[in-house]
Design a protein that fits this description.
This protein has 5 helices and 7 strands. With 188 residues, it is an alpha/beta fold. It has a single domain, classed as 2-Layer Sandwich (Double Stranded RNA Binding Domain), CATH 3.30.160. Helix 3 runs parallel beside helix 4.
Length: 188
């Protein structure tokens, strides 16, 4: 099979579409984070393929990275019965199918002809969801999630890197602790 510029462009678009991490968040607009300074962990949950259902390595990594990021935002980890916020996560890995159609035109004599072909690519997609709740009501007040394509058999280093990047990108959008914001204003 001979590749032309259309085939190469198609392949680049497919690979680019599967490899970029997507992050989204939403929060309860009626909620003020002004009084929050501490957090605790609720139970995390890893589901899906063998890579995440083993749980312990993924669980430990997610918690370490979230703890580090929350500390940089000014929040302190405390026992759940003394916390302002509860954090819960969901991690899953699923197989996905990406299908694209391509129309190839050619001319035979004076009449134009063409044919449509489809290409399918199976890939694994990892999803990490971080939920933040009020401990007393267990009401969800903030959620962030990231999705990204993952190699068929991810190496430990790749998985850790994906987790690190996902947590950082998600929590970059989480409000800083009010006392951290005050300290930054004083420094300026």
């Amino acid at each position: 099979m001979q590749f032309n510029s259309v085939h190469i462009l198609f392949l680049i678009v497919i690979l680019a579409g599967c490899s970029s991490m997507r992050v989204a968040t939403f929060g309860d607009p009626s909620m003020s984070f002004a009084g929050f300074q501490t957090y605790a962990w609720s139970n995390g949950q890893a589901t899906g393929g063998d890579e995440t259902s083993n749980g312990e390595v993924v669980d430990r990594r997610i918690r370490e990275v979230v703890d580090r990021k929350m500390a940089t935002k000014g929040y302190r980890l405390v026992a759940s019965d003394h916390s302002d916020l509860l954090i819960h996560y969901h991690a899953a890995m699923d197989e996905n199918l990406d299908v694209a159609a391509e129309y190839e035109r050619y001319r035979l004599g004076t009449d134009p002809y063409g044919r449509e072909t489809s290409r399918a690519q199976v890939f694994k997609k990892g999803t990490l969801v971080l939920d933040v709740e009020q401990p007393t009501s267990r009401r969800l007040i903030w959620r962030g999630w990231a999705t990204d394509a993952i190699n068929d058999v991810p190496r430990t280093e790749e998985m850790q890197s994906k987790i690190d990047t996902a947590v950082d990108k998600i929590l970059d959008r989480f409000p800083d602790c009010p006392r951290t914001e005050l300290a930054r204003e004083r420094e300026e």
